[in-house]
Automatic annotation (TrEMBL), chain A:
Belongs to the binding-protein-dependent transport system permease family. The chain crosses the membrane at residues 9-30, 101-122, 134-155, 175-196, 235-257, 284-307. This is Peptide/nickel transport system permease protein. Residues 95-300 form the ABC transmembrane type-1 domain. It is a multi-pass membrane protein. It comes from Phyllobacterium trifolii. Keywords: Cell membrane, Membrane, Transmembrane, Transmembrane helix, Transport. GO terms for biological process: transmembrane transport. GO terms for cellular component: plasma membrane. It comes from the Bacteria. The keyword Transport applies. It holds the Pfam family BPD_transp_1_N. It is found in: Cell membrane.
From TrEMBL, chain B:
Residues 9-264 form the ABC transporter domain. The keyword Repeat does not apply. GO terms for biological process: peptide transport; transmembrane transport. It is found in: Cell inner membrane. The keyword Cytoplasm does not apply. It is a peripheral membrane protein. GO terms for molecular function: ATP binding; ATP hydrolysis activity. It comes from the Bacteria. This is Peptide/nickel transport system ATP-binding protein. The lineage of its organism: Bacteria, Pseudomonadati, Pseudomonadota, Alphaproteobacteria, Hyphomicrobiales. InterPro entries: AAA+_ATPase (IPR003593), ABC_Ni/Peptide_Import (IPR050388), ABC_transporter-like_ATP-bd (IPR003439), ABC_transporter-like_CS (IPR017871), Oligopep_ABC_C (IPR013563), P-loop_NTPase (IPR027417). It holds the Pfam family oligo_HPY.
Length: 313, 335
């Protein structure tokens, strides 16, 4: 188990090198020049040349990358070109926002998707199945920004139950913080719940036709016992795989939701940085997101060992 | 535990219909039999003869929405008045299942839950029906695992099904069915998926447990070798009907029905190495296809046109202990 974790962590290193280089290169492909973004149109060629040199922009990409990598390894992510804020300080305030949003979204998606999937499987080809399957199709088809707007219109404009946007740290005012997080978490979590519902339904249908379910019934196990003790445990294994695969789109949803609901998270840090040609925060935030996704995948793999008794790590 | 010697189960006119369409024909037709305490009734037939469906119907394990069961099945649970298994509400049926009536299935590889420990699965019936604690159930499960010949039972109780072999899994299945000392055990081809040496061990195990606990057993199989080994009485089924029934020696030594004869002829025998194995030509009919006359006549070597394909035979009582469903049995007997 421990060797497995260590080996997987060691694998993260080359993966991160490749991913960070790709991120780095992609950012350089973006149109626009940070020098102009900082100095404006009226800058003299001498000023431009000086800033270029200061930012290593006159060097080849690979050199720029290595310079960046070296400073990142020493914990120095640089400063924001716009605000001169230390990027590492920015990360410290923004990581908790994205973590909170992602975890709440995950809770929403499981809390909605798994029960809906179980009900649809038990009542397969009857109306509950039809309702949930249709709803999940809609859930998958709706883009995040649209779901978000609909939620805002419903809960903030019409019902006036929830504040439309903003952020308060969880430890400062837990209730208000959660209130502000409900809509973003629904925006990101509902489409994922649709995917989880479909997978839960299908694997539950498959598990319920297994011989060991009949054995349990022949033993006098109650319908609830059959469902939750004998069936769900086995049906959840592929569901966990799907959740693991969806972590990436969870982060993608967070970027949209953070922008819509004015949450100061990593996603918005990336978006703002890109629009302002402020690359240091973008690179740092992307790095953290990638590490997050890779660690989430590792956790998914580890969870197999807990769920599927045939998997030995 | 009560050691029952009288009738444990009296099934009368059990019919099973699949599909709710009004014109659907039964897959099991008016099957009647009696299971006796301490004895084994073998239900024999090829795939599709309705023998497994009969077993499942007795415990209401057929999908209720897709099947209809008629007839009666009076079960004497040892103490208290008899109950009709075929007309029992779901809750009462659930209380009997795994307690007074237990069932084991053909596929040991897939009949155990892959994510529950063997100890839990064996002890589960006690937790459900006797309100046993986790610890009690585990202790009794270990004892039961030892009785069915699982080596190192305390450690095995914490193992999962994939960690043991098919033969061992079937022993575990038997242990889980027997732990509540049922009055009646329905064993649906419990040895079919196992190789011959393991098969013999499992049969011995079942016989031993039956002697110790005095339970009645309905043993569903297609293997006449197994029947000779374990049964006291035989019920031969063909296309959903009983075609012959009687004490095991009588039926095996003097089969009256052409189908039983053909089945016996198709058993490989070591003492007659030169003969080629006889097969029964054709295949079992689709239950939804109506057949005039005897249901076996299209495959029967003794079929007489104008008789067997017209007159539907009754189950004739021959001598009070053996009965046969063939209009020509007295002629064939004389020939």
């Amino acid at each position: 188990m421990l060797t497995f974790i260590l080996r997987r962590l060691a694998f993260l290193v080359p993966m991160l090198l490749v991913v960070t280089f790709v991120i780095f290169a992609l950012i350089l492909l973006l149109p626009g020049d940070p020098v102009f973004a900082i100095l404006g149109d009226a800058a003299t060629p001498a000023q431009i040349a000086e800033l270029r040199q200061k930012l290593h922009l006159d060097q080849p990409i690979i050199v720029q990358y290595l310079v960046w990598l070296k400073s990142v390894l020493t914990g120095d992510f640089g400063r924001s070109l716009r605000t001169s804020e230390l990027v590492s300080d920015m990360l410290l305030t923004r990581i908790p926002v994205t973590v909170e949003l992602s975890l709440l979204s995950l809770v929403v998606s499981c809390a909605v998707g798994i029960p809906a999937g179980v009900i649809a499987a038990v009542r397969r080809n009857q109306w509950p199945d039809l309702v949930f399957s249709t709803a999940s199709l809609a859930g998958i088809a709706m883009p995040y920004f649209w779901t978000g707007i609909l939620l805002m219109m419903l809960f903030s404009v019409h019902l006036r139950w929830l504040p439309p946007s903003g952020y308060i740290p969880l430890f400062q005012d837990p209730l208000m913080s959660l209130k502000l997080m409900i809509m973003p978490a629904l925006t990101v979590g509902l489409p994922l719940s649709a995917v989880i519902m479909r997978q839960t339904r299908n694997s539950m249908v498959q598990v319920l036709s297994q011989d060991y379910i009949r054995t349990a019934e022949a033993r006098g196990v109650s319908p609830m016992g059959v469902l939750f003790l004998h069936a769900l445990r086995n049906a959840l294994i592929p569901v966990v795989t799907v959740i693991g695969l969806q972590i990436g789109s969870l982060i993608g949803g967070s970027v949209v939701a953070e922008t819509m609901f004015s949450l100061p998270g990593l996603g918005r840090m990336v978006i703002e940085g890109i629009f302002q040609r402020d690359f240091a925060p973008v690179q740092a935030a992307m790095l953290i997101i990638v590490i997050g996704v890779l660690l989430a995948n590792l956790l998914t793999d580890l969870s197999y060992a807990v769920l599927d008794k045939r998997v030995k790590i | 535990m009560t050691f029952q010697t009288g009738n444990v189960l009296e099934v009368e006119n059990l019919s099973v219909y699949f599909g709710r369409l009004p014109g659907s024909l039964p897959v099991v037709r008016e099957v009647s039999f009696t299971a006796v305490g301490g004895q084994t009734l073998a239900v024999v037939g090829e795939s599709g003869s309705g023998k497994s469906v009969t077993g499942l119907a007795l415990l209401s394990l057929l999908n209720r929405g897709l099947s209809k069961v008629t007839g009666s099945g009076n079960f004497y649970p040892g103490s208290g008045p008899p109950v009709d298994l075929l007309h029992l509400d779901t809750r009462k049926m659930r209380a009997l299942r795994g307690d007074r009536v237990a069932m084991i299935f053909q596929e040991p590889m897939t009949s155990l839950n892959p994510s529950l420990t063997l100890g839990y699965q064996v002890g589960e019936a006690l937790r459900i029906h006797r309100g046993a604690s986790r610890r009690q159930a585990r202790a009794e499960a270990i004892e039961m695992l030892e009785r069915v010949g699982i080596p190192d039972a305390p450690r095995r109780a914490d193992s999962y099904p994939h960690e043991i072999s098919g033969g061992m899994r079937q022993r575990v299945m038997i242990a889980s069915a027997m732990i509540s000392r049922p009055t009646l055990l329905i064993a649906d081809e419990p040895t079919t998926a196992l190789d011959v040496t393991i098969q013999a061990q499992i049969l011995d195990e079942l016989k031993k447990l039956q002697e110790e606990m005095g339970m009645s057993m309905i043993f569903i199989t297609h293997d006449l070798g197994v029947v000779a080994e374990i049964a006291h009485a035989v019920l031969v089924m063909y296309a959903g009907q009983v075609v012959e029934q009687g004490p095991v020696r009588r039926v095996l030594e003097r089969p009256r029905h052409p189908y039983t004869r053909a089945l016996l002829a198709s058993v490989p025998r070591l003492d007659r190495p030169k003969t080629t194995l006889a097969a029964i030509a054709g295949r079992i009919p689709d239950p939804q296809q109506p057949i005039a006359g005897c249901r076996f006549h299209p495959r029967c070597p003794y079929c007489v046109r104008g008789l067997c394909d017209v007159r539907e035979p009754e189950l004739d009582d021959i001598d009070g202990i053996q009965s046969v469903r063939c209009v020509r049995w007295p002629e064939l007997e004389a020939a």
